[in-house]
Every structure is written in structure tokens, then in C-alpha cells.
Request: fold
Amino acid sequence: MKKTISVDIAIVGAGTAGLVAYRDAKSNGKRVLLIEGGPYGTTCARVGCMPSKLLIAAAEARHQAMLAPQFGVIPVSVSVDGKAVMARIRAERDRFVGFVLDEVNRIPSEDRIHGFARFISPQSLQVDEHTRIDAERIVIATGSSPQIPDRLSPHRLLTSDDIFDLEDLPESIAIVGAGIIGMEIGQALHRLGVRVSVFGRSDRVLQLSDPAVQTAARDYFAGEMDMRLHTEILDTISDDSGVTVRSRGKDGMERSDRYAYVLAATGRRPNLARLGLEHAGLELDEAGVPKYDPHTMQCGNAPIFIAGDVNATLPILHEATDEGRIAGDNAARFPNVQARARYVPFAVAFTDPQTASVGQSYRTLEPGRYVIGEASFENQGRSRVMLQNHGLLRLYADSQSGKLLGAEMFGPRAEHLGHLLAWACQKGMTLAELMSMPFYHPTIEEGLRTAVRDAKKKLKTGLTPMEACTDCIPGA
Reply:
């Protein structure tokens, strides 16, 4: 039986951004309806952050055991039970998803409806064929889905949405895409004993734009695993036993390789196809995404807001949370929307070594207006102690004021150094202020001090990067 529901605010999508938007809109005393067409449970908990980090944790355990002889510690044996690895991933993933489901179940039943929503007018939605929603304001928070290149055969093809449902580790896998998803999963599977080849169209890996940091990362991974960069996938031919991947390298030579599976890791696309945006009256960009103000999340002047991965800008959980909060609050305030300050850009890849990018990336720096502070981890004290002495940190500061602009790094514990730098960027700290902070010895953070000192010297004298390991000298 068809019915019509009238509400103040309709939120399409119950992922991270949608749930936060619901909570903020509801706190403003509005009648809010949350609409979800797929399974409840955020991308992060179900198919993203958490299951991937569980796989990485298992890989790190084996990798550390394999490194033990270099410390003089000889393990009796090291073996991998693939079924046990995948069972733990699924069990812990389901536990994290359970926390999200608990939150959804606390939402009153009259405030949520299941089904796929599409616009039938700028302020009306049709949910499947059973319910019409008339809403004064609408928040689009439909998330994203894996992007799958047409040239990949669908048989024995995996994405980041389903690889964690495997009951055992595969014998081999071809990973198409050398971005964060491809490199995290690829290195983890490689370290768990899976034969892995990573294919990338360009010569770049991960999210790095600084050429020196990019080179350090690319060279490291090329020394550890089978990296097929500057390589085009021509096609894949699959049968019940595996997949043949035909590719062409930078040298123009074609080759065929056999794998148990192919993983498409070429990014994610916004879930917009089923929304009927042609009826929403919104201006779209070249990719078909509604144009919006990132400080209000409002689409043009319409009573429509967009938040989370669906806007294809910053597909990161803490950004989805922030955007959901802004969208939900402004939907409740409409038409008196308020612009909000956004977090400093911050992204981490949990490879080993890790990568992090903070604030302005190298590619966005204004020519002639910055200095670069550099620190190598090759001879950094704490890094060598832990046998994690690989990588490079480069931070950028304004050449006039000394204000920290951003940083890119590939090195040990980059997730922690990245947080320190993100906080410093957001507070508008200068190099002098950073140098006034305490640095304990011996710690990875001393590498940050080396880079800050290097940039500070260049600010005054134009000296070249330091090569000596002053982190090994107490009080340096």
C-alpha cells in the first residue's frame, strides 16, 4: 500500500555522515526521517577501515616474526593459517558493525525507513514503490561504491566490499590500482604469503604528490613486492580455476599472468545513479556530483545538503563525521545556514612504512613561497633500534612567516607524526613554535624535530638538508 510521509528533514543514507546528520538535525527539535536502501553498518566498519586494518594487523604479526632473527631472536617456526586469519577478520568486523547497528536500533522506528530513495521533485522523494516522502529539506549521504574498470572480467573479481568475506587467503591475486586501498591490501596479503602483483597505470603509489617522498615509497615497495607500475591492463580472462591477466608494460611488451583472483582497487564512485538528480533542480559538476559549499554543505541555494563520500571530495571517516554534523545542523537551520571552519586536510595509509599527508600537499604549494624541511629515517635513532629505518619526511613552511603549511611523509609511525603535524597546522603554528616543544629521546618524533630544524635553517640561510643523525645526540 502506497503512503505519504511529511517531515522537516529527510536524510538519504544511514552511513557515518547520515547518522551524524540525523543526530544533529534531531537535536534541533526537527522531525527527521532516515532512509537507507542497503544494509545498515557504515563503510568504515563493514568494508573499509576496520576489516582492512585487521588484515594488516595479521600481516604485521607475521612480518615481525620473520624479522626476529635480525634481533638475534630465532622463532621455532612461523606459519599462517589463512582460514583463522579470515575468520578473525570477519568476527571482529561483525563486532564493529554490531556497534553501528546498536546505534541504528536506538533510533525510533518512526524515524527510519528502509528502501532506495529517488527525487521526484526538489522536495519530494519516492522510496522504492511504497512511500512518498515530502521534506522541507533533504540531506544526501548515500556514500560510495567500488569503481570497477570495464576491462575486468566479472568472474573471480573481488572489490574491497567483498574480499573480507573470503573464507581463506587466496593462493595468488592481481591487484589493479596502486592507491591506498590497493597498497594496503596488497602488502598485507603479500606478507601473509599470498603471491601478489600490484598493477598501476602511472608510476605513482598511494596519495603522495611530493616527488622525493613518492620516490622513497615507490622504491621501497618495488624492493618488497611485485609492482607493475606504468602498466595497462588489456583484459582478463577467467574460468572456474582462476584468471589470466593480460597487460602491457611501459616498454610496450605484453605479458600474461595467472592468478586465483583479481582485486579492483581503482577507487570508489559516489552513489548517485539511483537518486534521480535530474528532478532535484541542482547544478552538477562534470562528474555528475551536485555542486556545494564545503563550509555549509549546501547545494547552491536549495534546501538540499550533501555529506560524506557521496560528494567525492574527502572520503575519510573524520571528514564524513564533520560533514554530517554541518549538513544536519544547517538543514535544521535553513534558510539561516552557517559556514563552519573545516579540519586541516589529513590522510593516512596504513602500509608499512606508513604514509601521511597533512595540510597543503606538495602539488598545491605556491612557487617561491615555501621552504622544505627534510628528515630521512634511514639513520634515525629510534627507527634503527626497531629495524624500521626506511622513509622520508618533508614538511613545508611559508618562506616569509615560517608558518607550517603542510607535510608529506613515508616512514615509521607516520600516523602519529601526522597527527602532531595536523594539530600544528590547524593551530597555525610556526617553525619557531614547533622547535619550542619538547622532544623525548629516543623517539620517532625526533625525526620531526630534524625536519623542523632543517626548514628553520633554510628560512634564514638557505642551507641544504641535514644528512647527519642528530637524533642520536641527546639534547641536540
